[in-house]
Amino acid sequence: MHLAExxxxxxxxxxxxxxxxxxxxxxxxxxxxxxxxxGFVWRLKESETDPTATxxxxxxxxxxxxxxxxxxxxxxxxxxxxxxxxxxxxRRREWFLRxxxxxxxxxxxxEGHIPSLAEGMARLERLKAEGPSPxxxxxxxxxxxxxxxxxxxxxxxxx
Length: 159
Hints:
Layout: E1 2-11, H1 21-36, E2 40-43, E3 63-70, H2 73-81, H3 85-90, H4 92-95, E4 96-97, E5 104-109, H5 117-130, H6 154-157
């Protein structure tokens, strides 16, 4: 099993504004660290040639989406909290608005499955509606992959 992760951030200003220039300058190096991190499998990219391109979606102009797949919970944890990513995370209040409801969700997927953005958003909605479960959880309330083994296939789990 692999771990899928969806993380949303509500930008304080347009992505091309001077207010976010420092954050945008950090996107390429931080994404490169993720791409080379032990346990990294995949991340949603808007462009293969522009590492600073943000994902285009229909969820609002100020919503930044990070969507990735990792080999394990530990590999994602190590990237988030034990790499230079932590420095960016510590400065998140400079660039992002505080969100009142869950903005990050994780769930186990079969190896080789690449989840769709719609699947990720459905998992986030499930977390908001039902709270943490093996189908949708956070670092704080995580579940082992063995708890997800008996879950329905990815397409069924989003219903």
